[in-house]
Amino acid sequence: MADSQIRMTEGSISKTLIKFAVPLFLGNLFQQLYNTADSLIVSNKLGAISLGAVSATSMLIFLLIGFFQGLSMGAGVVIAQFFGAEDVRNMRRAIHTSLLFSFFIGIFLSVAGVLVSPQILRWMSTPESLYPEALEYIQVYFAGALSMVMYNACMSVMQALGDSKHPLYYLVISSVVNVGFDFLFIFGFGWGVGSAALATVISQFVSVALCLIRLMRDKGPGRISFKELKPDFRMLWMIIRYGLPSGIQNSIIAIANVVVQSNINYFGDMAVAGCGAYSKIEGFAFLPITSFTAAISTFVGQNLGAKNYDRAKKGARFGVGVSVIIAEVIGVLFFILAPYLIMAFTREPEAVDYGVLKARVCALFYCLLAASHCYSAVLRGAGKAMVPMLTMLSFWCVIRVGFLTVTVPITQSIDAVNWVYPLTWFLSTVTLVIYYLKADWLGIKKSKHISDIKKI
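Above: the chain's sequence. Below: its structure in token form.
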């Protein structure tokens, strides 16, 4: 096993999870910083309308990218459980199948994203003042979608093997590259909002190149070889079976958020800009959640592969607890500092008011957001991805869309849009906690785990 890889089936649970999660947190922080740099540079150089154009595309990007991120999560679960079971042969087959599949998916998404984005922006009722720049940004972004898909596939492989350090290094490098090209394209060349997307694409390709070089030079069982990059359809089916629910879940959330964005668009470009500024700051609050969800899924996957059921349960409790506490502390700080943080992105008084209003509604409920994602991560690591998928379908899609459909026309107020988030976070958290406490999510009774598969 390479020095950078962590076997989570032994040692202190708290130290193991924190050792794995901290590099992920720092990496996600750098990623959020360069995403924020995009918005700061765009808003301060190109104006609030350009910021609104970028914000108006974020939900659409996640709609198309999020599905394939979910498939990568499925690959990570498969690889982690084989790794925990010390089944090197099947683990390597899963790694190579995942990377090859992701390559072809990335090409497909690049073409499809460029073709369908104009119509979807129209369906979202994107304000005419934002549409030209929004279309420019989204089409450049999707032209480089291969880099996004391959990046997520490589990260899933590394994290499944317990390596969270190298993803951190590569995110730092890509962050510097992204910000550097932002300044060059926008301030140096005087290009428009599409150049911010181009900078992101270039930085992602740099990350992919570094990841592939690392995996090819790995001295452990996770080393990739071009000779082994061939389709294994039975392994592909296993990856899809574990990853499809997560992909559908991401898409469901994205579809619901597209509806939410459409309702925000209804209130005009200042509402779009203000809520977009809020979303950038919310991304920072989400960092401990994403860090611990990745750590929890890998921890649970490896330990269930090794049949360490009690250890998997203790690790899940610790990860959820830490994530919830940190997220709520950040939420309280955001609630207090909201006006100053929003003004970092836009000085338009009306846009600032919209952003602060949303922060004052949502920030104190970040504990619920953390709980929903962490319990979902526990269940994904255990191969129970259908449960969080159905939960999110029910509450983050059906209830969220239904609530907005009824309340926005009646109230004619953006408060309805803001309050739909805490409401659905609460409902999903209660449902997932009940399942976690009552169901046999460890699979002890049925003993159905990937690790039970010796030959496929």
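The first helix runs from residue 13 to 46.
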